[in-house]
C-alpha cells in the first residue's frame, strides 16, 4: 500500500536503467507528495471539524447562558414590579393619613391639633424610614454607606428605644419587658444611628408579628461585646423561611406575616449593618410560639468617656454666655420647629428664608452658628456657606442641613466651608448634639437642676424642681399621664396650671414640665411625671 514498500518490490528488474529509476522516481515522488498533501488536507479537515464542533459547543453554551440570563432578567423584572407595588403600598398608607388629617385640620373640625400632629408626625417618620431604608440598600449595594464612630450613651439609647415601643406594645395589649443582665458601660463607641436602626427593626418586627403575649429585650455586656436578644411570643417563622427572610424584599411564606404591612427590607438591612459594625444577627423560631433574634456585636468602651454628655430629653439650658444661632431655610415649618427647640434653651435665634436675607442677617447678628439648608430658592447653600466664610471668616460654625442624603459631605476638615452636616428630616436630639459639639456647649440637664435642691431619697420635695412631689400631687400626675398618652397638649397645660395652684412647692417641677410641653417633648414629659411621682 504505501509507496516505500512498493519501491523495493521493483528490485527484480534488471538493473539499472537509471533513466527508468528516474522515471519511477518521477512517478513515485508526485505520489508521495500527493499522499502527503492528502494526509495534510485530512488533518486540516479534522482540525476544522474539531473547531466547528468546539464552536457549536460554545454556541450551545452561550445559548444556554443567554437563556439563563434572560430568565434572571425576567425574574429581576418581576421582583422589581413586586417591589414597586410593595413600596407604593407602603407609601400610600402613611400618605393617606397625612392627607386626611391635614384636611381635617384645614376644616377646623373638632379634632385636637395635638392628635392630628401626632398622626402626621408618625406617618412622616414612617415615610422617612422607608426612604432611608431604600437609600441604605442602594448605598450598601454600591458600597458607599458611611459609618460614624460616635460616643454613645448605651443605657440611654436602649431606654429611648424601649420607650419608643411601649405605646405600640400597649396599643396591642402586649407586654414589653426590658432586662439588663449585669452591668452596662455608660458609653460605647459605635455608629449610633445604625445601632438604633438595627434595634428598631428587630423590636418593631417583634411587636408587629405578635398578636398575644409580648416582646422582650434582654441585654448582656461582657468583654467589650454586647449580646442583645429580642424575643417575642408571636407567629414564629417556618424553618424553610429562616434564611430567606434576611434577603431583600423577602417576606417569608407565612400568610399571617403577609397580613402585616412591610416590604421585606428590615432584616436585610439589619444583617448587613450588623456585619459592617462588627457583629452578626442570628435567629431561632418556632411556628406559633415565637421568635428570638440575637445581635452580637463588638461595642468597645471609649478610652476617655466625655465628662458631660447629657441626655437631650432633659436639657433645660446651658452654662456660659448666650449664643446666637442663625437658621437659613426656605421651609417655614422647619424654621418654626428649630425655633421652638432652641429658644426655650436660651439661644438667640434668627431666621431667614433665603440666601440673600440670610447673608444680610448674618452681617447684623454675627451668629455663633449657622444652620444652613443646602437647597435654597435660586441658590445653593454651599454657595452661601462660601460667602458667609468670606464675610465672617472662620469664626461661626456652619452646619449644613439637607433632605438629600446623597449630598452628604462631612465637613469640619479645615478646608470645607462647613463644619458639620445634618440630614432632614432633622432628628432634634441629633441636632442638639451637633450644636453642642460645634459650640463646645456645657449643657444643663433637668436632673442637674433638681440635684441642687434637696437630697434624692426623702420625700421632702421643697422649692424649685425637687426630686419628688408631695402625695397631694398624685391625682394631678395621674390625669396628666392619661393626657400625655393621647397627646392632648391643651389638657396637659391645664393640669399643670391646676397642679401649680393646688400643690404648694410644685412650682419648679411644673416650670420644667411646661418647658417640655412647649417643646412638644411628650416622651420627656412622661418620664418626668414618673420621676416626680
Ligand atoms: P418586613 O417586616 O417589612 O416584611 P423584614 O425584613 O423586617 O421585613 O422581615 C422579613 C420577614 O421576616 C417578615 O415579612 C416576616 O415574615 C419575618 N419576620 C421578621 N421578624 C419576625 C418576627 N419577629 N416574627 C415572625 N416573623 C418575622
What would you say this structure looks like, in words?
The protein is of the alpha/beta class. Among the domains are: 150-298, Heat Shock Protein 90; 312-441, Rossmann fold; 471-532, no CATH class. The chain contains 16 helices and 16 strands. It has helices at residues 3-6, 18-106, 113-142, 154-171, 192-208, 255-258, 266-276, 332-342, 355-365, 381-392, 428-439, 446-451, 474-486, 489-502, 507-518, 522-532; strands at residues 150-153, 175-181, 187-190, 214-222, 225-232, 279-286, 290-298, 315-318, 324-328, 348-352, 369-373, 375-376, 379-380, 397-402, 420-423, 443-445. The strands form five sheets. A five-stranded mixed sheet has the order 2-4-5-7-6, covered by helices on one side. Strands 10-9-11-14-15 form a five-stranded parallel sheet, with helices on both faces. A two-stranded antiparallel sheet has the order 1-3. It is elongated, with a radius of gyration of 37 Å. Residues 1-13, 307-312 and 449-466 have low confidence and may be disordered. The structure holds adenosine-5'-diphosphate (ADP). Adenosine-5'-diphosphate (ADP) is lined by residues 201, 205-206, 209, 232, 234-237, 245, 251-252, 254, 257, 262-268, 291.
Reported for the largest beta sheet, the result is: 5 strands, mixed
First and last CA, distance: 118 Å
* Strand line-up in the sheet with most strands: 2-4-5-7-6
Mean pLDDT across residues: 81
Strand content: 15-25%
> Would you give the CATH topology of the domain at 150-298?
Heat Shock Protein 90
CATH superfamily of the domain at 150-298: Histidine kinase-like ATPase, C-terminal domain
Uncertain spans, ≥5 residues at pLDDT below 50?
A: 1-13, 307-312, 449-466
Q: Which word captures the global form?
A: elongated
CATH C-level category of the domain at 150-298: Alpha Beta
As a whole number of angstroms, the C-alpha radius of gyration is: 37 Å
By helix and strand content, what is the structural category? alpha/beta
Number of strands: 16
Amino acid at each position: 500500500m504505501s509507496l516505500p514498500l512498493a519501491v523495493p518490490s521493483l528490485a527484480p528488474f534488471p538493473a539499472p536503467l537509471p533513466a527508468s529509476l528516474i522515471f519511477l522516481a518521477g512517478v513515485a515522488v508526485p505520489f508521495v507528495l500527493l499522499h502527503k498533501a492528502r494526509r495534510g488536507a485530512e488533518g486540516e479537515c479534522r482540525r476544522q471539524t474539531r473547531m466547528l464542533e468546539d464552536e457549536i459547543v460554545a454556541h450551545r453554551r452561550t445559548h444556554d447562558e443567554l437563556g439563563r440570563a434572560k430568565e434572571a432578567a425576567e425574574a429581576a423584572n418581576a421582583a422589581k414590579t413586586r417591589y414597586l407595588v410593595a413600596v407604593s403600598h407602603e407609601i400610600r398608607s402613611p400618605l393617606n393619613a397625612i392627607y386626611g388629617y391635614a384636611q381635617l385640620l384645614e376644616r377646623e373640625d373638632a379634632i385636637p391639633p395635638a392628635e392630628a400632629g401626632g398622626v402626621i408626625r408618625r406617618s412622616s417618620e414612617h415615610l422617612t424610614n422607608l426612604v432611608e431604608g431604600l437609600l441604605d440598600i442602594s448605598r450598601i449595594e454600591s458600597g458607599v454607606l458611611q459609618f460614624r464612630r460616635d460616643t454613645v450613651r448605651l443605657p440611654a439609647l436602649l431606654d429611648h428605644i424601649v420607650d419608643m415601643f411601649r405605646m405600640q406594645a400597649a396599643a396591642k395589649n402586649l407586654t414589653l419587658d426590658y432586662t439588663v443582665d449585669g452591668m452596662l458601660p455608660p458609653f460605647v463607641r459605635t455608629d449610633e444611628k445604625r445601632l438604633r436602626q438595627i434595634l428598631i427593626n428587630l423590636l418593631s418586627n417583634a411587636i408587629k408579628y405578635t398578636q398575644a403575649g409580648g416582646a422582650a429585650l434582654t441585654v448582656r455586656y461582657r468583654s467589650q461585646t454586647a449580646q442583645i436578644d429580642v424575643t417575642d411570643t408571636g407567629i414564629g417563622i417556618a424553618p424553610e423561611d429562616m434564611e430567606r427572610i434576611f434577603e431583600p424584599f423577602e417576606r417569608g411564606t407565612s400568610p399571617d406575616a403577609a397580613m402585616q404591612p412591610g416590604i421585606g427590607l428590615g432584616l436585610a438591612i439589619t444583617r448587613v449593618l450588623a456585619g459592617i459594625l462588627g457583629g452578626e444577627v442570628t435567629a431561632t423560631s418556632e411556628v406559633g410560639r415565637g421568635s428570638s433574634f440575637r445581635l452580637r456585636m463588638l461595642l468597645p468602651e471609649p478610652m476617655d468617656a466625655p465628662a458631660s454628655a447629657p441626655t437631650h430629653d432633659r436639657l433645660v439650658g446651658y452654662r456660659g454666655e448666650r449664643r446666637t444661632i442663625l437658621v437659613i431655610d426656605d421651609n417655614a415649618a422647619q424654621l418654626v420647629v428649630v425655633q421652638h427647640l432652641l429658644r426655650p434653651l436660651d439661644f438667640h435665634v434668627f431666621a431667614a428664608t433665603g440666601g440673600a436675607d440670610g447673608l444680610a442677617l448674618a452681617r447684623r447678628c454675627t451668629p455663633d452658628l449657622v444652620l444652613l439648608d443646602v437647597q435654597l430658592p435660586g441658590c445653593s447653600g454651599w454657595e452661601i456657606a462660601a460667602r458667609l466664610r468670606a464675610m465672617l471668616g472662620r469664626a461661626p460654625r456652619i452646619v449644613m442641613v439637607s433632605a438629600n442624603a446623597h449630598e452628604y459631605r462631612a465637613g469640619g476638615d479645615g478646608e470645607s466651608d462647613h463644619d458639620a452636616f445634618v440630614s432632614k428630616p432633622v432628628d432634634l436630639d441629633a441636632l442638639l448634639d451637633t450644636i453642642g459639639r460645634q459650640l463646645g456647649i456645657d449643657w444643663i440637664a433637668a436632673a442637674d437642676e433638681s440635684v441642687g435642691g434637696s437630697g434624692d431619697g426623702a420625700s421632702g420635695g421643697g422649692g424649685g424642681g425637687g426630686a419628688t412631689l408631695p402625695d397631694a400631687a398624685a391625682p394631678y400626675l395621674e390625669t396628666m399621664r392619661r393626657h400625655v398618652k393621647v397627646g392632648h397638649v391643651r389638657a396637659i397645660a391645664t393640669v399643670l396650671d391646676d397642679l401649680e395652684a393646688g400643690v404648694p412647692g410644685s412650682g419648679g417641677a411644673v416650670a420644667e414640665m411646661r418647658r417640655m410641653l412647649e417643646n412638644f417633648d411628650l416622651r420627656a414629659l412622661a418620664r418626668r411625671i414618673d420621676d416626680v411621682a
